[in-house]
UniProtKB/TrEMBL annotation:
Pfam families: ABC_tran, DrrA1-3_C
Organism: Alteribacter lacisalsi
Any GO MF annotation of the entry: ATP hydrolysis activity
UniProt-recorded name of the protein: ABC transporter ATP-binding protein
PROSITE patterns for the chain: ABC_TRANSPORTER_2
Length: 310
């Protein structure tokens, strides 16, 4: 796969506090790569270092075809975490201004602006001033501004925050189609369901350090243990004593049993006691959301998370 961005051993401190250390990943042409982590993990700090908004104390950032440390702004689109456009400027004017900043031809920019305004249900808003837009509409305009110049690499810091479900869906579809057209996409998020539906690879940061890096499929098959959900009246203590059960949650006649990493499901099922009350039973892998919660609350010890470091 063609590499567009390489981040190597990035480290950054504020005063005496190490905020991120040893952050390394690549972003490839045509892929959606997600940087994940709980609040304060260091996602925005990582992105701001890539964008040259701040400088790393250690490590390097390399864009394909450019000297180390050079940020080729005309090749990159960026949606910052802090939203905000000039308030008393008309929508079309601001989009053309962003295109001009990236040396993108005005005629093509106008065509693309009209195309995307229509796509994002903002047709006819070209002459509306930004301050008259709702928050979600403003976010759509800012997203369009970040892609108006056909960037090779698109960096989106929390693109879904503050959007309603319909707009989230629109953003998701657009991000996917940009990747399909070859744009390399790096996004940060803590909305795991959206990431799970959208990203190809992920890099999870916790307390400024890597805990997981890999394809979504690898992460799920290597890291997402099985859980067994049973509808029936059973006592939690007894369920927790079953072999292969890490922990059990019981709530209103539904028990969720989290199984050990190496559980062989057919064998485990065949060894269940015959007197358990089972009205319904299902086996699933835990979701990315549950992996994330496990890490964020330190339920999955660092040793376990390290098992799939790549
Ligand atoms: N300019 C700064 N000066 C001092 N500390 C900072 C600065 N910027 C960020 N930090 C600290 O660095 C840590 C990581 O912040 P960062 O914004 O990168 O996290 P994040 O993963 O993006 O979090 P969130 O999901 O809440 O946006 C936090 O503890 C934050 O307080």
């Amino acid at each position: 796969m063609e590499r567009v961005l390489r981040v190597e051993n990035l480290g950054k401190s504020f005063k005496d506090r190490q905020i991120i250390s040893d952050i390394s990943f690549d972003v490839h042409k045509g892929e959606i790569m997600a940087v994940l982590g709980p609040n304060g993990a260091g996602k925005s700090t990582t992105i701001r270092n890539i964008m040259g908004i701040m400088y790393p104390d250690e490590g390097s950032i390399n864009f394909r075809g450019f000297d180390k440390g050079t940020v080729p702004r005309h090749k990159i689109g960026y949606l910052p975490e802090e939203r905000g456009l000039y308030k008393n400027v008309k929508v079309m004017d601001i989009l053309l201004y962003f295109a001009e900043l990236k040396d993108y031809p005005a005629k093509k920019a106008r065509e693309r602006a009209l195309h995307y305004l229509k796509k994002f249900d903002l047709e006819g808003k070209e002459k509306t001033s930004v301050e008259e837009l709702s928050k979600g509409m403003g976010q759509k305009v800012q997203f369009i501004a970040s892609i108006i110049h056909e960037p090779e690499l698109l960096i989106l810091d929390e693109p879904f925050s503050g959007l309603d479900p319909v707009s989230q869906e629109l953003f998701k579809e657009e991000i996917r189609s940009l990747a399909d057209e070859g744009t390399a996409i790096l996004l940060s998020s803590h909305q795991m369901n959206l990431v799970e539906e959208l990203c190809d690879r992920l890099y999870m940061i916790h307390r400024g350090k890597k805990v997981i890096y890999g394809t979504l499929d690898d992460v799920k098959s290597e890291y997402a243990n099985f859980k067994c959900t049973i509808r029936g009246t059973n006592v939690r203590k007894r369920l927790e004593q079953l072999s292969g059960v890490q922990r059990a949650e019981v709530d209103e006649g539904v028990s969720v049993l989290h199984l050990d990493r190496d559980t062989h499901v057919p064998t485990w099922l065949s060894e269940l006691p015959v007197d358990l009350d089972i009205q319904e039973l299902s086996i699933d892998r835990i979701s990315l959301h549950e992996i994330f919660i496990g890490i964020a609350t330190d339920r999955l010890g660092e040793k376990e998370a390290d098992l799939i470091e790549k």
